[in-house]
Amino acid sequence: xxxxxxxxxxxxxxxxxxVVKKCGCEVYGYDxxxxxxxxxxxxxxxxxKDPVEIYRNCDVIMQILPTHPIIINSVEQAVKYGKPGNIxxxxxxxxxxIIQELYQKVEAAGLYLLDSPVSGGNPxxxxxxxxxxxxxxxxIFDRMKPYLACMGDPVYTGKTGSGSVTKLVNNMIAxxxxxxxxxxxxxxxxxGIDLQTTFEATRGGFAGGPAYDNKVxxxxxxxxxxxxxxxxxRKDIINAKHYAHKLDIDTPMTDVVLAVMDWMNxxxxxxxxxxxxxxxxxxxxxxKVGSGEEKV
Length: 296
What we know:
- By secondary structure, the protein is of the alpha/beta class.
- The chain has 13 helices and 9 strands.
- 53% of the residues lie in helices and 13% in strands.
């Protein structure tokens, strides 16, 4: 079996490397930024110059792509150039209604589509410990589970689109948590207490956890180099708001998260790490949070 991997950015790069090292198959890869494929090739993957080579020749196509137009085009190209029986695994953060529409096109052509978004950021992508939420045909999930497991812990969530909805739930909660972290540490800075001591005193409490251990040191050291970009997270928050409208419900906490992310977008910080959302509170509280030279 031949596997193709499309998209080798902050998340896709280490994910593709884990697939190459663990899957036991030939793996072909493509990214529009050629330098992104360096680690993939060094791990034993085969870079291609045109994604059509992957659509034509691979039995399984994994993709983690940044925007809905690019995601849609890739799936449509996989249908156009692929053969019946091929399996497309969309690891991107894709809106549920788009996945459902794409599934109908893919099914009509005799191919299969799994919506399989991931969570855990760049550290989990490197470690191969991502949370992987997969919707679609159960039989296809069962066949693909060993390959998904190369990147983390795949869980079957149900029918097509359910993986995408589960990712929205994840990122609604994660967004609120990260905004709360930013607010809390801006509050601490304004109160004049030591941030590192605050972190050490609270990390073992209810506030603590993997995200806390990952993001708070970045806030303290003003390290906004993206492990996960606000822009990508904001896309999920917008998708959640659209889906909430479809469900005819209010999501007041998510409204707050979107307001902070919109401010980040309007002020030129949208491609920084989620830890940079502390800048919103620096502006509102008139305080500098953390020390050292800012890194972006």
